[in-house]
Write a structure and sequence with these properties.
heterodimer; A: globular; B: mainly beta; seven-stranded mixed β-sheet; globular
Amino acid sequence: SQELEQSPQSLIVQEGKNLTINCTSSKTLYGLYWYKQKYGEGLIFLMMLQKGGEEKSHEKITAKLDEKKQQSSLHITASQPSHAGIYLCGADTSGANNLFFGTGTRLTVIP
Amino acid sequence: DGGITQSPKYLFRKEGQNVTLSCEQNLNHDAMYWYRQDPGQGLRLIYYSQIVNDFQKGDIAEGYSVSREKKESFPLTVTSAQKNPTAFYLCASSSPTSGRAADTQYFGPGTRLTVL
């Protein structure tokens, strides 16, 4: 069964625009991970969130985990073509370090 | 440079043949994982190993086998019993902390397997 819902499935934005990707779990999360993937390549780790209400930022990317630890959002400010790729959320729902992944959001940034 | 390597990047196999995908890490991580990625389905866990000489089945282990004889290496064999093996295979490793703290998995570049 699909434990993680990721939305939207794809996103096309103009360079300079802000955007948000969401990841929702039916279970409380022990950890929520955001990764970025270029087509045909491995996953690049972006951020990990563990505590309810936690927020982390790196350059123009901010990730948040809600207080209930069931929903996370990834926000990109002033998008650039280098932000293009597939964004995946992965979640640890059992505490055993085994991750379930969302189906990904394909981001296209138009110059 | 520390990291995870997977080889080969592209692999072609005839139906009925077994094939082994390599995964090596020099991060000194205890845990290693194999995932399969299909279009529109995200990643699915095949096998994982939390320590040398021990491994566990993931969600889709049928038709696959693994070994963990060394800490650095976790090869995956795709057997002829796997009915739909064409996919992108990703290896990951992590260094689990004690208790229930989540730990970050780091991924290799992947191997694309095509069955002809």
